[in-house]
TrEMBL record:
Protein name: Class I SAM-dependent methyltransferase
Pfam families: Methyltransf_11
GO biological process: methylation
One Gene Ontology MF term: methyltransferase activity
Species of the source: Streptomyces purpurascens
Listed PANTHER family: METHYLTRANSFERASE
Entry-linked InterPro entries: Methyltransf_11, SAM-dependent_MTases_sf
């Protein structure tokens, strides 16, 4: 693959598609659904990635916050929540309900001092669209010792079952395991990693792993992302993974 400026490509993509994306996902404007995890909006109050560890008032940063639906959700839950987003198009629609602030920046170059955050959050944000090792290094820098990083991204199984021609997820393995860590379909750049790659990166970047959650779609629940993923598939196999790691 020829070298491309993934930040520029992705910024232009989200600047151009932000309105269409959020028009298709009105649930992002529903405060009762946030903070939550993944494409099924599983409540943080159920998964408890942060809830049992962080007291009210803890400082948290949302990496690739979009319009800030989860940033404001954490603010309503009592946290001092900041959102960081690459796209001005996304931030132009940002919700401002109690958030400590929104900043336009690349998540691999955060405009914050070292050690100022108690936790970092990413739900299909920057970790889907940037090299994860760079993001882990930067998250480690801005977290205090013992700070928590929670991130949700697509599962390796989903990536293996994704049909690049049809743009859908099927019940047959379509791609080799660990085939690539960067994909560019002509409009947006995305990054994928295997479990082994994640574990090595966490270790190398100074994190210890505390939890790995492999959520499946709640049976009979709503479908929010209809573009590629069939609910029947996601009720049988995990489409996503949620990692909880801690700065050592």
């Amino acid at each position: 693959m020829a070298k491309i400026n993934y930040l520029k490509v992705n910024e232009q993509y989200w600047d151009s598609n932000s309105e269409l994306y959020h028009d298709a996902h009105p649930e992002h404007f529903d405060p009762d659904r946030h903070p939550s995890w993944g494409i099924w909006h599983l409540p943080e109050s159920d998964l408890k990635i942060f809830t049992d560890d962080l007291p009210a008032g803890s400082r948290i940063i949302d990496l690739g916050c979009g319009i800030g639906h989860d940033t404001t959700g954490f603010a309503r839950a009592g946290y001092e929540a900041y959102g960081v987003e690459l796209s001005s198009g996304q931030l132009s629609r940002a919700l401002g309900e109690g958030a400590a602030g929104f900043v336009q920046a690349a998540a691999e170059r955060l405009p914050f001092r070292s050690g100022v955050f108690d936790a970092a959050f990413c739900d299909h944000g920057a970790f889907d669209f940037s090299p994860p090792r760079r993001l882990l290094q930067e998250a480690h820098r801005v977290l205090r010792p013992g700070g928590i990083l929670g991130l949700c991204t697509y599962s390796p199984l989903l990536q293996m079952c994704f049909d690049n021609q049809s743009g859908t997820v099927g019940e047959r393995l379509a791609n080799p395991y660990g085939d690539t860590r960067m994909q560019y379909g002509g409009d947006v750049v995305v990054f994928h990693s295997t479990y082994a790659q994640w574990i090595d990166m966490f270790r190398d970047c100074g994190f210890s792993i505390e939890r790995l959650v492999e959520p499946i779609a709640p049976a009979g629940g709503a479908t929010y992302f209809k573009e590629a993923l069939d609910r029947n598939w996601a009720e049988k196999w995990p489409a996503e993974v949620v990692w909880k790691v801690r700065k050592t």
